[in-house]
User: Which sequence fits this backbone?
């Protein structure tokens, strides 16, 4: 009813300007024909139509925006420490950032992808890859927090990741760098023929979402740049772009740009499953971390795995075919029907589109053009569906609107070009500001894109916003794509460097978003469910404080008997069971961040007092009218002091 | 008025007695549905906190509403919302309602068997109304006590323009602004069903009387 009224209102306002609501929808004469402000305006208190999840790139995180308003709702810490939420600082969350290389406080997060059911985004989880130290994270969309991180062994530069298959059977992670597998001490000059690339298939438990590295496919030593799942008719296949099929190990800028064509590798993962059933997989030693966060104990656990199942593509016929694709293709995008596979050859003047049907036919009739390390190369002309001629300079990525159109970004000519699948004709082009990388249409990597908006994520910002010194946020532009012509309707800054984004209709997620954690269900070993159970316990030089917080006091708030050289653990439970009443805790002189504790949770940090005195702590989140009164003191005595531990609230 | 008396002919004594039974039995819905509801909304509580008052005790509308109301009330020194065992009303009310319902049903059976005159339906209704008014009076006393018997060490001691301490009782019926909260107090399903039941007993009396006069 409200929506109808809004629509009426919108129409009547538009009507005043344009003499007729119907006309405004049909006419597509550029910026003057419609009111951009009206399209992106979400009135105070109203909700956006979509959640947009933007990767943070070198921030390592995932930010959540509303679309079409471009309002930032939240930054979810994933691969990087976040002092705001104590992620990676609190004792409970530190294990999330453990790897086979130890604790790593940062990564480069790239390609978020929302879980799918029957080819449609379902909003259960969102996956994202850590590029630098290869990892895949799963973010729970009830909590909007990182639930799991799985390290990927044998991989290096985890870039062609983390795309899901149409029923979330697998999250797929491909390696950018080829490396010695297993890793060993050898000369870089011996790269060619010796280095290998690993493509990882991670299975997902459909109930819990838990990830397991199901198998890896070992490939020739190319670079595997991006990937996308087959869908519909091509479900069961996965497509990866390659570059550096020259297998250069230095000055790739030049040496990896020599071949006229690189490949899209078509991987038949159903065949891989058959090979595994037939016992063709080999178990290989590998060290990788598996970190999980438990919402009942409110703690993360870090375990190391020591084995991975490997299939060697060069020894297993029918597993992988190579589709020649001009000039170092970057994005590898599959249209909603699963028929067209777009290779965005970044140094090519044309866009190459392969046909899945033709590919199957070429395989059946052995239309091969030689092989690479035993992998059949299909004849280019026999798999080609069509070519988009001279669309622009530097194609990178393509998305689809579900209405037969494709949208490709051009980094060098800084534009998005809309073209038609099947006829390959160019319909429209619009500039971006500047040098667009990825673009995103809600449900873009699915069988059912929602062709209403398109977001361009740009690499260069320059003069788009008020100047803020030499370091700039990246810019994004939102386009209305409901008409024949794209229309720029909003420009907004983003956090870090968004490499890809994923969006989903708000109503698929908003109603299940968590408000509190139930205190009754809190199984943290140091939970304090009632202020009467608050206590301070000494174990040698360790002091454990079981503390509670509720508006507007800590229990206890006076503690004596702590000594210099002690290791003081604050185990703090927020007793609130009310939505949006977090309490913070900060201790003067603690070599760590604050804690920000959500209702019903328990969190821990460690303070090692170095100076004698009486030191204060306080609540860092303005929780209530008496927030400023929410504070306490800890007396620190000399190391040799014999003062006994004591604690109190209101001297009781 | 001229057709009213004719209207009461629609039920003979048997049917009127059945209606008396149904009306009295509807009181039992108070064991299943709340009698009253109080909602507390504020700028910070766009989804209001709420209490459902049953004859057997007070429950939160949402799982943690009572706890959260108590949490807020501690600032102004109000007592916590009583548990069922802390108020005699929650023991006595169910007994009274149960007995009255049984009594009404028995009267209805008596009427059906021609052993009880319709005037007893009216006596029952009057008794029930008196008890109901007493209940409301008691409820109001509790609200006033709850809202004005405040902890002398309360964090916030608010006074009105004349320097008198503010009281915080929610209204027994309707709306009242209490600091940042808007309190709304209205009957709930149980009370409405009880009212329908009492109306039925009135109808039963009027029809029964008409049937007898004829």
Assistant:
């Amino acid at each position: 009813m409200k929506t109808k009224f809004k629509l009426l209102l919108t129409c009547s306002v538009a009507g005043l300007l344009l003499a007729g609501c119907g006309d405004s929808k049909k006419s597509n004469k550029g910026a003057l024909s419609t009111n951009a402000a009206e399209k992106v305006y979400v009135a105070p208190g109203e909700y956006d139509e979509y959640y947009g999840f933007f990767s943070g790139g070198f921030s390592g995180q995932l930010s959540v925006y509303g679309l079409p308003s471009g309002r930032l709702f939240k930054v979810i810490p994933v691969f990087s420490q976040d002092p705001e939420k104590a992620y990676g600082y609190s004792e409970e969350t530190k294990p999330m950032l453990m790897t086979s290389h130890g604790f790593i406080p940062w990564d480069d997060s790239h390609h978020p992808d929302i879980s799918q059911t029957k080819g449609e985004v379902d909003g259960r989880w969102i996956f994202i890859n850590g590029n630098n130290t290869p990892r895949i994270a799963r973010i729970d969309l009830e909590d909007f927090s990182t639930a799991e991180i799985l390290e990927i062994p044998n991989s290096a530069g985890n870039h062609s990741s983390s795309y899901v298959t149409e029923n979330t059977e697998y999250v797929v992670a491909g390696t950018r760098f080829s490396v010695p597998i297993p890793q060993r001490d050898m000369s870089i000059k011996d790269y060619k023929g010796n280095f290998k690339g690993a493509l990882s298939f991670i299975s997902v438990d459909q109930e819990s979402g838990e990830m397991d590295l199901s198998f890896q496919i070992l490939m020739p030593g190319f670079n595997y740049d991006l990937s996308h799942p087959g869908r519909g008719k091509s479900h069961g296949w996965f497509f990866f772009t390659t570059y550096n099929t020259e297998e250069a190990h230095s000055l790739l800028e030049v040496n990896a740009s020599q071949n006229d064509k690189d490949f899209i590798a078509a991987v038949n993962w159903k065949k891989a499953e058959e090979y595994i059933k037939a016992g063709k997989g080999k178990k290989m030693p590998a060290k990788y971390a598996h970190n999980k966060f438990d919402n009942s104990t409110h703690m993360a656990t870090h375990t190391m795995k020591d084995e991975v199942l490997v299939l060697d593509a060069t020894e297993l016929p029918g597993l992988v075919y190579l589709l020649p694709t001009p000039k170092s293709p970057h994005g590898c995008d599959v249209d909603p029907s699963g028929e067209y596979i777009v290779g965005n050859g970044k140094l090519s003047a044309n866009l190459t589109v392969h046909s899945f049907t033709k590919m199957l036919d070429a395989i059946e009739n052995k239309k091969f053009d030689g092989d690479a390390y035993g992998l059949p190369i299909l004849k280019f002309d026999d798999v080609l569906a069509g070519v988009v001629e001279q669309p622009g300079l530097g194609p990178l990525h393509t998305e689809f609107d579900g209405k037969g159109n494709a949208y490709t970004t051009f980094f060098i000519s800084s534009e998005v070009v809309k073209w038609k699948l099947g006829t390959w004709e160019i319909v429209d082009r619009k500039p971006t500001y500047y040098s667009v990388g990825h673009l995103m249409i809600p449900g873009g990597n699915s069988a059912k894109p929602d062709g209403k908006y398109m977001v361009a994520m740009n690499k260069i910002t320059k003069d788009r916003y008020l100047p803020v010194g030499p370091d700039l946020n990246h810019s994004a532009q939102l386009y209305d794509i409901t008409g024949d012509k794209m229309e720029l309707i909003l420009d907004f800054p983003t956090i870090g460097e968004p490499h890809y984004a994923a969006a989903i209709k708000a109503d698929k997620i908003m109603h299940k978003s968590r408000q509190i954690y139930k205190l009754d269900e809190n199984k943290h070993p140091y939970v304090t469910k009632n202020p009467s159970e608050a206590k301070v316990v000494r174990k040698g030089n360790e002091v454990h404080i079981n503390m509670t917080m509720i508006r507007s006091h800590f229990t206890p708030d006076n503690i004596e008997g702590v000594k210099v050289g002690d290791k003081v653990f604050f185990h703090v439970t927020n007793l609130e069971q009310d939505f949006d009443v977090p309490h913070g805790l900060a201790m003067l002189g603690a070599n760590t961040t604050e804690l920000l504790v959500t209702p019903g949770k328990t969190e821990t940090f460690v303070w090692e007092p170095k100076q004698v005195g009486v030191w204060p702590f306080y609540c860092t989140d303005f929780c209530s009218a008496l927030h400023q009164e929410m504070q306490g003191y800890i007396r620190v005595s000399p190391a040799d002091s014999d003062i006994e531990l004591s604690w109190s609230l209101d001297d009781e | 008025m001229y057709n009213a008396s004719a209207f009461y002919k629609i039920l003979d004594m048997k049917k009127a007695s059945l209606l008396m039974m149904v009306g009295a039995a509807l009181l039992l819905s108070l064991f299943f549905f709340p009698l009253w509801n109080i909602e507390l909304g504020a700028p910070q509580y766009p989804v209001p906190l709420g209490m459902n008052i049953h004859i057997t005790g007070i429950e939160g509308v949402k799982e943690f509403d009572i706890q959260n109301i108590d949490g807020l009330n501690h600032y102004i020194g109000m007592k916590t919302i009583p548990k069922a065992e802390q108020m005699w009303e929650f023991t006595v009310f169910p007994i009274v309602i149960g007995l009255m319902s049984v009594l009404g049903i028995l009267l209805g059976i008596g009427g059906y068997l021609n052993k009880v005159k319709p005037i007893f339906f009216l006596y029952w209704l009057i008794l029930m109304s008196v008890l109901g008014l007493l209940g409301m009076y008691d409820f109001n006393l509790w609200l006033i006590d709850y809202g004005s018997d405040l902890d002398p060490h309360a964090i916030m001691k608010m006074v009105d323009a004349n320097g008198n301490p503010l009281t915080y009782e929610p209204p027994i019926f309707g709306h009242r602004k209490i600091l940042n909260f808007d309190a709304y107090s209205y009957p709930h399903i149980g009370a409405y069903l009880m009212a329908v039941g009492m109306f039925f007993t009135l109808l039963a009396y009027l029809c029964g009387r008409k049937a007898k006069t004829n």
Notes: Chain A has a mean pLDDT of 94. The longest helix of chain A spans residues 2-18.
